[in-house]
Amino acid sequence: MSAGIQHDFRYRPLVHDVLDLKLNRLSVQGEKGGMRSYELDSSDPFWAANGFLEFPEVAVEIEAQLNKYKKDVDEVNRRTGGTDGAQFDGTDVIGNTKHLMNAVNSLPELTERKQVIDKHTNIATVLLGEIKERSLDLYAKKENDMMLRGGIDRSELLGVLKGKGSKMDKLRFAIIYLISSESINQSEAESVEAALRESEVDTCAFQYVKKIKSLNVSLASANSASRSNIVDWAEKLYGQSISAVTAGVKNLLSSDKQLALTRTVEALMEGKPNPEIDSYLVFDPRAPKSSSGSGSSPMKGPFKEALVFMIGGGNYVEYGSLQGLAQRQQPVKHIIYGTTEILTGNEFVDQLTLLGQKMGLGSPGVPSASSQ
Description:
The protein is mainly alpha-helical. It folds into 3 domains: about 10-135, Alpha-Beta Complex (Syntaxin Binding Protein 1, Chain A, domain 2), CATH 3.90.830.10; about 135-240; about 255-355, 3-Layer(aba) Sandwich (Rossmann fold), CATH 3.40.50.1910. It is built from 15 helices and 4 strands. The strands form 2 sheets. It has a two-stranded antiparallel sheet. The model is unreliable at about 85-95, about 225 and about 235-255 (pLDDT under 50). It comes from Rhizophora mucronata. One of its GO terms (biological process) is vesicle-mediated transport.
């Protein structure tokens, strides 16, 4: 769950989350006041090469490419006599013609490079404005620290919630606090909820995650005699058996550094016995039919390619994690990631809010934080 909510400070997730990238297209404020629309896909060399760098590294890379562009332009001008001190010999017709032809041939490439640099300079400038206004760097750092440490100091937690940031930034931060905590401190959770209400944030999604977290803790500690109430509650809420609910809760609320999805894909591609993937079914049309009649075949790995498709919302964080997994392998593996829809953190929290509303949770009279 954390992958869909956490603030990420890498370029692609930032652009998607903050600038509302849809179908590889976004619109931002231009330098002269008008709106500029840009395409961002694999045909953009800068986007493809630097999409998962941290934002400060992207800014450095933009500056480096701009300096290289200026140097190349100066070199073209020097060779064609466009600047003082140019090496131009009036008697060397062949040599001069060659310089001119090289310059002419390099112009389209230089023009294209400049367009790419200008595009990402403009996008980065708009992002920087949002980062400063909302302290997005602070949210990303604190959330990452929480996930690694398994919690956060109360004063630090409340300080962030009472500081800069949109209503949705604060709600997402509060939910990450819940997910990262080993157990819920009721007094602390109430303080967080009060801080959210002070900022006029609808706490429905927060209460929903707290309820799910409480269910997970209860299932782990309850004895067999006391589980009937939990079973009844879960079946009433989800309309399915408790085993189906509990199967997903552990991974749903996982706060491990490596995403649950990435761990699963890595284990499946290795094709070795692993308790995390024992329940997965393998269907291979080339394999002989299983004697059990289940249709599932034994796992025979390792595999070089994988196509991962999420039924429901996906995000750039999962995509980046899978690409990182593919690149770490020797030899490099190929992983394709697809989803029913790519959700921003705000959109994912909106879905949690709807689930909470179905349970009658939320802050009466407080508008949704989705547009804040």
